[in-house]
Design brief:
The complex is a heterodimer of chains A (393) and B (298). Chain A is an alpha/beta fold and 393 residues long. Chain A has 2 domains: 175 residues, Periplasmic binding protein-like II (D-Maltodextrin-Binding Protein, domain 2); 158 residues, Periplasmic binding protein-like II (D-Maltodextrin-Binding Protein, domain 2), CATH 3.40.190.10. Chain A contains 14 helices and 14 strands. In chain A, strands 1, 2, 3, 6, 12, 13 and 14 form a 7-stranded mixed β-sheet that branches. Chain A has a 5-stranded mixed β-sheet with strand order 9-8-10-7-11, with helices on one face. In chain A, strands 4-5 form a two-stranded antiparallel sheet. The radius of gyration of chain A is 24 Å and the shape is globular. By secondary structure, chain B is mostly helical. Helix content of chain B is 77%, strand content 3%. Chain B has a two-stranded antiparallel ribbon with strand order 1-2. In chain B, a hairpin with a 2-residue loop joins strand 1 and strand 2. The chains are: A alpha/beta (393), B mainly alpha (298). Chains A and B meet through helix 1, helix 3, helix 4, strand 9 and helix 8 of A and helix 3, strand 2, helix 5, helix 7 and helix 13 of B.
């Protein structure tokens, strides 16, 4: 009798569960076709969710001197929720969740977001500053597909070699400093924790092993790829860390547990602004460098599309561009920003197309070689990811 | 409310009464309604997620141009990768090794501490000690992680300055920090186990000429084993699944969790296949624990 009751109870509970489960089958899967671009900017939704590289959307909480988000909130009534990411893979994954309205995407995630249907086409007629952006940044391979614009240029710059000036002597001028197994600083050297770092090894090999014939560090065939991976595996032995958490990375320079590594200009700027200043400096090594050219993208299913466009217009406006560019240490996309920061623009070659063209911007490697070779197959990004796992061990 | 009842008279009301009477006279339905919520949670959120993980691990990614898509065609390729490539095996062994080390360190610290709490301290200070041991759980995991990062710094950390040497970063830093984080989960079950152990047994052993060591080995340890295993389940499983401490301490080494994290965005099926490794390890661990009777202590 007792048992019969218990069985009945379980049966009823299971039935209710089944009924409840049956309800959520509505969610559709599969890729969605890109929606048409927005026609106008309507009334703001009161909020916007921003996914950005560190320091791109500062609201003064980290450093009261860095604050351009508060003004945006007052001007537009859109409350900004900001999430920072450390690598492009993280950006791509997080943007794919659909929880974010806009993202500052680098070239190695932007086209993937377009291909996956997460990025919405952008109606440039709605952008108040689009005409003032540097022409060589607009409608390029990493922000537009078949004439449709998906990304609004934000700024660009090179990855730099950073070192403690009180420890590393003489000052390095070559990436060799990070790859030398007999370095006196072995055990205190850091590399960036992302598969895209393989390209940094390729840049170094372009200069030091011309026989490999690397033309583009993102277009590596079997032999070239293997050479880069081997170089990185050997580098692993004398590294202190692979970094992707910029806060922890900055701390390691303060403490001296890392004295040299690949870095962003903004990290050097932040350390130099410490009180007392942390003695670091940065250099663009003679071999050239990998670089980023970032674009703001809007999600195809953005919950706050109007506030998203408000953000695009705000973040590309001259004053804000000047502020972000000096904070981050990059060239602003909006050349009108240079009116107030002429010296900065000159240092970072903001309107210098020739300089721009010699850097190697992060992009997603594909089987079809990006350097135009058709006689070989190149390693695509999934193989870069697998190799990166092997390198880290 | 009153108005609604008025408007609800007639058919609806009798129907409702009839339904209430039906439910109250059938125990099974009553109990079933009560259990449906929690059961939905367990079946849907817990077991459902695990099934989704297993199913995903059988798929694979295909890349055409820029677009990587998951192909829902079942196969065992991901498991082959996980088993065949040495890097996945090394990472798994390193993680299990670290989890065992954390468990051993926590046990070594927790045994004397719990013994003092349960058998030596006065009733009043015992209560205070329990609070003291569990107090770190009030602070956030990340706060504690970053605090340890500062303390363990190989150049200028507190530990280096006070002790003269530091585990530094890398694997040892990770193990040290994890040991700190999960210590309360080891102390509390052992304390509870010792608390239940009658003092008369210890006295009897001493009366019969047993030394402290002999008493511990022959009386305390056998009775305490289930509590120790219960504590070790926490420290072992929490260490096995951790990735953030390793991310900020790990230097150049990675744990299972870091590998899953970095594959998550770019190769979900492979990440899912690798995620079954800790599940299997934990299943084996729990089966072993069940044999000792420790699961009754949880």
């Amino acid at each position: 009798m007792h048992n019969a009751h218990r069985c009945g109870a379980v049966a009823v509970a299971l039935l209710l569960v089944a009924a409840a489960c049956g309800g959520d089958d509505k969610a559709t899967t599969g890729t969605t076709k890109a929606a048409p671009a927005q026609k106008q900017i309507g009334a703001g939704e009161g909020a916007v969710s921003i996914l950005a590289w560190p320091y791109y959307a500062e609201d003064g909480t980290q450093d009261p001197n860095y604050d351009w988000v508060s003004k945006f909130e007052t001007d537009t009534g859109c409350q900004a929720r900001v999430k920072y990411f450390g690598t492009s893979d993280e950006a791509f994954t997080l943007f794919g969740t659909g929880d974010y309205d806009v993202v500052s995407a680098s070239g190695d995630s932007s086209l993937r977001s377009v291909a996956s249907g997460d990025a919405a086409p952008i109606n440039t007629d709605l952008l108040t500053n689009y005409d003032d952006l540097a022409p060589f940044l607009k409608e390029q391979a990493w922000n537009s597909v078949d004439g449709t614009v998906y990304g609004v240029p934000h700024g660009w710059g090179a990855n730099v070699l950073q070192y403690r000036t009180d420890v590393v002597s003489p000052a390095p001028d070559s990436w060799a400093a990070l790859f030398d197994p007999n370095s006196p600083y072995a055990g205190k050297i850091a590399a960036y924790d992302s598969p895209i770092y393989i390209a940094d090894a390729a840049v170094y090999l372009m200069a030091t092993k011309p026989k490999l014939g690397i033309k583009n560090p993102y277009a590596l065939d079997d032999t070239q790829f293997k050479a880069a991976v081997d170089l990185l595996k050997q580098q692993n032995g004398h590294l202190s860390e692979y970094w992707s958490d910029y806060v922890a990375y900055e701390d390691n320079y303060r403490a001296g547990s890392t004295v040299m590594g690949t870095s962003w200009q903004v990290i050097a700027n932040t350390l130099q602004a410490d009180k007392p200043p942390t003695p670091v400096d940065s250099v663009l090594p003679k071999e050239g460098s990998t670089a980023w050219s970032d674009n703001w993208m809007v999600h195809s299913k953005a919950q706050h599309p109007n506030c998203a466009y408000e953000w695009l217009n705000y973040i590309t406006s001259p004053d804000v561009q000047a502020e972000v560019a000096t904070t981050f240490g990059e060239a602003p996309a909006n050349l009108k920003a240079c009116d107030s920061i002429a010296e900065h623009c000159q240092t970072y070659h903001a309107d210098d197309k020739a300089y721009y063209d010699q850097l190697h911007y992060w992009t997603t490697p594909t089987k079809k070689c990006l350097d135009g070779r058709t006689d070989v197959e190149c390693k695509d990004y999934s193989e870069w990811v697998a190799a990166w796992t092997e390198i880290k061990g | 409310m009153g108005r609604r009842l008025d408007g609800d008279q007639g058919l609806t009301r009798t129907a409702r009464q009839r339904a209430a009477r039906f439910v109250s006279s059938h125990r099974g339905i009553r109990l079933g309604g009560l259990l449906a919520g929690p059961l939905l949670w367990i079946v849907g959120a817990y077991i459902g997620a695990l099934i989704a993980l297993l199913v995903t691990s059988l798929y694979h990614n295909e890349t055409t141009g820029l677009l990587t898509q998951m192909v829902t065609e079942p196969g065992l390729d991901n498991y082959r990768t996980v088993v065949d490539s040495p890097v996945y095996r090394d990472v798994a062994l390193r993680t299990v090794g670290a989890a065992l080390a954390v468990t051993a360190i926590d046990l070594a610290i927790a045994l004397p501490v719990a013994f003092y709490m349960a058998k030596v301290a006065s009733t009043r200070s015992r209560r205070r000690l329990v609070i003291a041991v569990t107090m770190p759980l009030w602070a956030g995991y990340l706060v504690k992680g970053y605090a340890w990062r500062a303390m363990l710094n190989p150049e200028s950390g507190l530990i280096k300055e006070v002790v003269g040497a530091t585990p530094g970063y890398g694997l040892w830093g990770t193990i040290t920090t994890l040991s700190y984080l999960w210590l309360p989960y080891m102390v509390i079950p052992i304390y509870a186990g010792l608390d239940r152990l009658p003092n008369s047994l210890l006295e009897a052993s001493t009366d019969l000429g047993g030394t402290a060591g002999r008493t511990f080995r022959s009386v305390v340890l056998p009775l305490l084993l289930p509590s120790i295993v219960a504590g070790s389940i926490f420290t072992f499983s929490l260490s096995l699944g951790d990735f953030y401490v390793n991310r900020i301490f790990g230097g150049t080494t990675q744990f299972i969790g870091n590998n899953i994290y970095s594959n998550f965005g770019v190769n979900l099926p492979l990440a899912a296949a690798y995620a079954t490794v800790p599940v299997l390890i934990m299943a084996a661990y729990l089966l072993l624990a069940r044999a000792t009777g420790a699961l009754k202590e949880l």
